[in-house]
Amino acid sequence: MKRVFGARGAAAAVVVVAGGAAAIVGVGVFGAHGAAPRTGPLSVHAGLKKPPGAVVRGTTLVDEKGARSELGASVSGSMMGPLAPVAVRSTDGKLIAYNTWQELRPVDADKSFSAQGIEKGAALGVPSLRIHDDQGQDFLLARGAYSAAWRHDGAIAFVQGVDPVFRASAAYDGQVVVRRGVHGRDVTWMSARAHYVVYAWAGDRLLFYRIGLGEKTELLVADAPGKIRSLAEGTAIAVSPDAARVAILSEDATSVRVLDIASGREQSWIDVTIATPALRWVAYSGSWVGDHIVAPASAGLAVFQVGPGSLTLE
Question: What domains can you pick out in the chain, each with its CATH number?
């Protein structure tokens, strides 16, 4: 079951469990450095009778009151892996954008393409973004698109594939676009074609990943259409509630930095392997509430306290 998150800081707070074609796309093409789940102890406890927020599973949406509604297609995080939420709710709470995958050909992830008679360039599937509104209406937002983030004014950012069809042994290049409302026109914010995953809005600035060779991740900031700058290598843990800062995890998963998004300046840094208590690793896709950051870690969960120019592990 996947939690549906809002447009601001909460959009950073989910580790997406990729489904459907994840073995084909999420790991092989868009799996970020360190995206493979780490092993560790798992404890299961009784939870709340009702989820604290809306969740999606398969073709079902369950809202905060426990009411169920049917989605137009099954949700899938196959194009983003754990880098972005599979479903996100608009700021006004009326719309949910979710990722789907249309399988054009079944693929056995345990076998090579050649062993399955799949030639280079063969059509395997099509990612799409759909919208589900508070009246139960469900419709296509964009075909050949994935990873969405809502802005506070209702604009929605996503990656639009150059070719909507995902093909065997071929890069799925896209551009980052922003649509002013679900029925508006697309405005290209990042025109250079590459592998991207939209992460979240930080106020009016858009954060998104560029995935390079060896699945290396780089977090970029778009201040406006065409005004793109590199913020950091690594992956984001969470955006601050005031949308001014972002917590960044190093590529080796052992250190965390807090950066000012507007300037890119580092405000604080911590190496978790020599902190007290020490951790072996920390993972991305966490949450930032008040002056605390929570992230998955080798010990279960890591809780960081953010102070003026300081970052401490509790």
Answer: 2-172 (no CATH), 237-314 (2.40.10.480)
